Every structure is written in C-alpha cells, then in structure tokens.
Amino acid sequence: MSIIQHAVWLYHRFPLSYRDVQEVLHRRGIVVSHDTLREWCIKFGPLFTEDLRHREPRRGSRWHLDEVCTSVDGVRHWLWWAVDEYGFVLDILLQRHRKTEAAKTFLTRLLVEYDVPEVIHTDQLRSYGAAIQEIASLAHVDHQEVISTARCNNITLQEHRSTRRQE
C-alpha cells in the first residue's frame, strides 16, 4: 500500500505525468505501467484526499472576504476569495455578477465546507451585508467592514498573489 500511496502522492504533488511517475518508480526498482498508475489515482486519490483533510488543522474563526474584477475571454468576471485569520485560502469562486445573489452563493458555499465564523471582515461592498443578513446561520456573526484606506492591512490583499499566479 505504501508504494501505491507514494505513486499517487508523486502524481498529485508534483507536475508529473503518469509516464514520469512510472519512470521515477522504475529507477527505484518498481515496475508499474502508466495505466496502472492512472487507475490507482482514480481509485485511491479520493481516499488519500479525505485522510489528509482530516489531518488538517482547524480553520480560523475570522474570515476575510474580498473580490476583484478580472477578464476571461474579454468578458468581465468577479473573482471572489475568502481567507481565514492565519492566511489559509478557504475558497475561490469566479462569477459573472457582483450582486447580493453572488455574495450569497459564495457565503453559502463557504458554510458548506467550514463552521460559522465569529467575525467576517469585508470591504464596503453592500452585497456582503445584504447576503449576511439573508443567511440565517450568519445572523449573529460580527460583520466588520474594512475602510478603503486601511485595506493595506487586509490579509486578503496579501493572499491574492498565489491566486493570481494560479489564474
């Protein structure tokens, strides 16, 4: 099982193809075809992911939310992201709109994955406030709007670098 786990880890952790992983294992004296590696990744990948997810530390109870305008194929979209108090990116979502429904969709998606936070820090976009009021589980959450001049200290603006790199 450790060989399978190592092979799946190599494939998902590094930018390697199945044939590259096959070659790495072959150099260690393990002969496996690339089709077998593909089947292992399909079969065992979700199991290993679930195991790793349980080992992760609990996420912070302070969320920092922000959005930025970006262009995809010449069409304007909004890239929403949430970061916890420790700088861990909770979620990223690309949407066409910047309305209350879009903010509500993003917050609902966050609440599926994580516990209800104690504090939510946002910019002064009114869609956040309206969405937080519409979601019942966020009724008692402290919503703090960050003033635009103080945004330089907002942790989301420091975290967007990795998001932009992926984009």
Walk me through the topology.
Layout (H helix, E strand, L loop, with lengths): L1 H12 L4 H10 L6 H22 L6 E11 L2 E10 L4 E7 L4 H14 L5 E4 L3 H9 L7 E4 L9 H12 L1
Parallel strand pairs: 1-4, 4-5
Antiparallel strand pairs: 1-2, 2-3
Describe the protein's architecture and organization.
The chain is an alpha/beta fold. The protein has two domains: 2-55; 62-166, Ribonuclease H-like superfamily/Ribonuclease H (Nucleotidyltransferase, domain 5, 2-Layer Sandwich). The protein is 47% helix and 22% strand. It contains six helices and five strands. It has helices spanning 2-13, 18-27, 34-55, 100-113, 126-134, 155-166; strands at 62-72, 75-84, 89-95, 119-122, 142-145. It has a five-stranded mixed beta sheet with strand order 3-2-1-4-5. Strand 1 (62-72) and strand 2 form a beta hairpin. Helix 1 crosses helix 3. The longest helix is centred in the N-terminal third of the chain and has 22 residues, at 34-55. The radius of gyration is 20 Å and the shape is elongated. Residues 163-167 have low confidence and may be disordered.
Which terms summarize this structure?
6 helices; alpha/beta; 5 strands; 167 residues; 2 domains; Nucleotidyltransferase, domain 5; disordered C terminus; five-stranded mixed β-sheet
Report a brief summary of the structure.
The protein is built from 6 helices and 5 strands. By secondary structure, it is of the alpha/beta class. The protein has a 5-stranded mixed β-sheet.
Topology, number of strands: 5
What is the CATH superfamily classification of the largest domain?
Ribonuclease H-like superfamily/Ribonuclease H
CATH topology (fold) name of the largest domain: Nucleotidyltransferase, domain 5
Q: What structural class should be given to the helix and strand makeup?
A: alpha/beta
CATH class of the largest domain reads: Alpha Beta
Give the proportion of residues in helices.
40-55%
Q: Which strand-content bin applies to the residues?
A: 15-25%
By oligomeric state, this entry counts as single chain
Number of helical stretches of at least 4 residues: 6
Total count of domains: 2
String of helices and strands: HHHEEEHEHEH
User: How far from one another are the termini?
Assistant: 35 Å
Shape: elongated
